[in-house]
Amino acid sequence: MSQPIGKTRWAIAEGYIPAYSTGPEPQFTSHETACLLNSSDQDAHVEIMVYFNDREPVGPYRVTVPARRTKHLRFNDLSEPEPIPRDTDYASVIESDMPIVVQHTRLDSRQAENALLSTIAYASND
Amino acid sequence: MSQPIGKTRWAIAEGYIPAYSTGPEPQFTSHETACLLNSSDQDAHVEIMVYFNDREPVGPYRVTVPARRTKHLRFNDLSEPEPIPRDTDYASVIESDMPIVVQHTRLDSRQAENALLSTIAYASND
Amino acid sequence: MSQPIGKTRWAIAEGYIPAYSTGPEPQFTSHETACLLNSSDQDAHVEIMVYFNDREPVGPYRVTVPARRTKHLRFNDLSEPEPIPRDTDYASVIESDMPIVVQHTRLDSRQAENALLSTIAYASND
Amino acid sequence: MSQPIGKTRWAIAEGYIPAYSTGPEPQFTSHETACLLNSSDQDAHVEIMVYFNDREPVGPYRVTVPARRTKHLRFNDLSEPEPIPRDTDYASVIESDMPIVVQHTRLDSRQAENALLSTIAYASND
Asked: Are C53 and D37 in contact (CB < 8 Å)?
């Protein structure tokens, strides 16, 4: 790998953690994930700001993705400065000091059969 | 956050609101959403044009996304100048006076178990 | 709308029409769709080449998307020069003489409950 | 087709092969696929590096996509230098000596009704 792949600013406009789940945990817990890939040879220090419909943004949430590692970060697990509320629309902006790649995935297991969505996040050079 | 992330013109080529739904409302109402994120410090004034297969485009639909807010806009809820018909193919072009990020999501609950799709919309610099 | 949005070359690397379906037709017929949006004031003449795993590409399939219209083209319906086989991996390259936006969607109804996927296609300036 | 469409470096930040499956094989085997399209007139020699959460990357996995062909590569089938473990988060970087287009798809059939996700991968010019 010649050089790290990715960008340093990303956004996910869709965000929603279903309020309940069906099936064995943790695999079938309804969750929303930001998959972060750091293919570089230096740790990436990542900051996430979370935006809401009706109040000021919360954050930054901080996470480190070590060199040459991927971290599939469940928004469900974020707690500092505060947990992400369930059944609430949100969005996020993700900034890193190293180029990373970000993909957004949700598993919705509110019903007996789970549903999935995924998309590459929006990458910015700005 | 140094500067707002996003673009001012977006397009969603896929559009389809299923004709019926199964399960508790409003979470399981079949719907199609444009998730809009405005991370800037100024309100974003957004105009949406809706394109059809067999007639002239309708719009603009107008919506404001306040500064530092996200709005998950259900196409189901648009009413002015006219509602989006169900069970009909459409597409949309979204223009904003501030940079925004747009993601497209559908929940299809016509059957007992819901299905989901999502993708980042197409962003343009033009 | 100041100018048309989109690009003139697009690719969809994933292609697969499920072999069978469950549920009422045509809504729940398993299908794969290229959603084409032409927001310009001139008709877009579109040519689609279809690529396979083990034989030479087939095409071009020709379709016109009128000015200010969207066309949600089911690959299932393509017949000239030949139908797209079911249960077969393929991919496609889409070229237009006007800028268009392309989104790829599949509804898989092989089982009792349908599944959905969608993504913006890959756009090229080349 | 004037010239090949695509890029030579791609990344998929999401990666997860479900641990089990329901339904007839191989169509309903839970799987994760990188759909590769080589629209050029020369074979594309592709190398895939796989990244994990807690150990060094593995690879390169090597695959050739012949000229004017698509290959829908199941990560499940990769064996050299080692199989991809199930029920494990991973990510991948895909490099090719010819421009290609990469799309990421998962079929999750752990439950009775399958779920699907798909997204265009992240393309890089670097």
From this structure: no
Distances (CA, A) of A91 to A32, A51, B13, B15, B46: 11, 5, 22, 21, 17
DSSP 3-state assignment of C53?
A: coil
Measured CA to CA, the distance from residue D88 to residue B48 in angstroms comes to: 41
DSSP sequence for A78-96: --SS-PPPSS--EEEEEEE
Residue C112 near chain A (CB below 8 Å): no
Task: Tell me if A104 and B113 make a contact (CB, 8 A cut-off).
Answer: no
For A119, which of C113, C115, C119 is closest by C-beta distance? C119
A-chain CB neighbours of C113 within 8 Å are 113
pLDDT, tens digit, for every residue of B56-71?
999 999 999 999 999 9
Mean pLDDT of C101-114: 85
Q: Is the pLDDT of residue D1 over 60?
A: no
Q: What is the full DSSP assignment across B53-117?
A: SSS--EEEEEEEE-TTEEEEEEGGG--SS-PPPSS--EEEEEEEEEEEEEEEEEEE-SSSS-EEE
- In this prediction, residue D10 carries a pLDDT of 97
Tell me the shortest Cα–Cα distance from A111 to chain B, in angstroms: 6
Strand extents, DSSP E, chain D: 7-12, 31-38, 44-52, 58-65, 69-74, 90-108, 115-120, 122-124
Are the Cβ atoms of A14 and B36 closer than 8 angstroms? no
Locate A72 and state its tokens: 């599939």
How large a percentage of chain D has pLDDT more than 70?
97
Query: Per-residue confidence at C38, pLDDT binned at 50, 70, 90?
Result: very high
- Report how far residue C90's alpha carbon sits from residue D6's, in angstroms, rounded to the nearest whole number: 16
Residue D77, C-beta contacts closer than 8 angstroms, at least 6 positions apart = none
| Residue A14 in this model has a pLDDT that exceeds 60 | yes
Task: Give the neighbours of chain A: at least 3 Cβ pairs within 8 Å.
Answer: B, C, D
Any CB–CB contact under 8 A between D97 and chain A?
A: no
D114, C115 contact by CB (below 8 A): yes
Q: For an interface test with D, which of C16, C51, C108 has the most D Cβ atoms less than 10 Å from its Cβ? A: C51
A94: number of Cβ within 10 Å? 27
